[in-house]
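Researcher: Here's the sequence for the chain we discussed earlier.
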Amino acid sequence: MKATKQTIDKWVAPNWHSDFGDSNIELILLKNASLFLLEFNTEFTFHLDCYEEGYMRVEVKIGEISWGEINVVDNEKKRIGVFKSTGEEFYFFLD
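Model: Thanks. This is the structure I predict for it:
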């Protein structure tokens, strides 16, 4: 399914123990980073992956091909990491 603002807005934060941090803040950052990338390529699809308690990431694909993933590197500083399948890494801050 093609990603849209509406599909990304439907993501729900996992309910994990507070020792792992605030999942709501992390989810908001992941949503905003996904929407930011969607502006550059409308062919991207995004999948929120809560793969372990305390950890979330967004898998980014073009069609069936993995493009990379988005991670929150620092909740407090709102620092995001984009890790491309090619090995390239990009970091940015969200307001």
